[in-house]
Amino acid sequence: MQRLRGWIFDLDGTLTIAQHDFPAIRRELGIPAGEDILDYLANLPAAERLELSARLDAIELRLAHSVRPALGAAELIRHLHADGRKLGILTRNLRSVAMSSLEVLGVLDCFAPADILGREEALPKPDPDGIRRLLAAWGLTGAEAVMVGDFRFDLEAGRAAGCRTCLINSDNPWPALADWHVGDCSALLAHKCAGLP
Predict the structure, then answer these.
(1) Which UniProt keywords are listed (predicted)?
(2) What is the DSSP letter of 93?
(3) What pLDDT, in 10s, does the model give residues 181-190?
């Protein structure tokens, strides 16, 4: 972990306390239960896709006003930034929501604007497109980076890009996908500072 030069983070449920009630969002948008929201929208006819996407954007912007930091998130980001690590955000949310959330956390200045990727800037996870874009911009290989997230899509994207993976804040360890599994950002910072493999 000490040798990792690039750190890519999911946002909701990783650096912030999870607040998306996905079953409620599906009901509000009329999306069948269990369907991946972004996949469902991508397969709609253009007019319907645009209308539902605009409604989803409005829901996310509404939720952005009540974002709360996850335990130790700001301290972890500040430590990595001070340590000279490359920092990126890869979220299935809007980029504007990500930037607003990072501002609430007090760490927006730790991220280059081009290194904050939402669903408009990269294909949504589990596709590794966003990770590959960040690695290319940073001049790093997958082996030099880690994808940190709270869901299997984060881990699958990291694995597909050849990165190490860290699962955070989750009771579902997905052991075949996660190199590390920690309870929160404070635990991840302690793990990193301890120089553990």
Answers:
(1) Hydrolase
(2) S
(3) 999 999 999 9
Domain ranges of the chain: 6-17+68-193, 22-64
Return d(Cα 71, Cα 187) in angstroms, integer. Answer: 9
pTM of the model: 0.85
Q: What is the pLDDT of residues 149-194, one digit of tens each?
A: 999 999 999 999 999 999 998 787 788 899 999 999 999 999 888 7
Residue 148 and residue 188 in contact, taking contact as beta carbons nearer than 8 Å: yes
Class at the top of the CATH hierarchy for domain 22-64: mainly alpha
Task: Name the residue with tokens 């954007």.
Answer: 57
Helices (H) and strands (E) in the chain, counts: 8, 6
Nearest Cα residue to 130 out of 156, 102, 103: 156
Q: Report d(CA 102, CA 22) in Å as an integer.
A: 22
Give the C-alpha separation, 172 to 188, whole Å: 17
Contact predicate 125/153, CB 8 Å: yes
Q: Give CA–CA dist 164/51, Å, rounded.
A: 37
Domain 6-17+68-193: assigned CATH number: 3.40.50.1000
Q: For residue 182, how many C-alpha atoms fall within 13 Å in the half-sphere facing its CB? A: 22
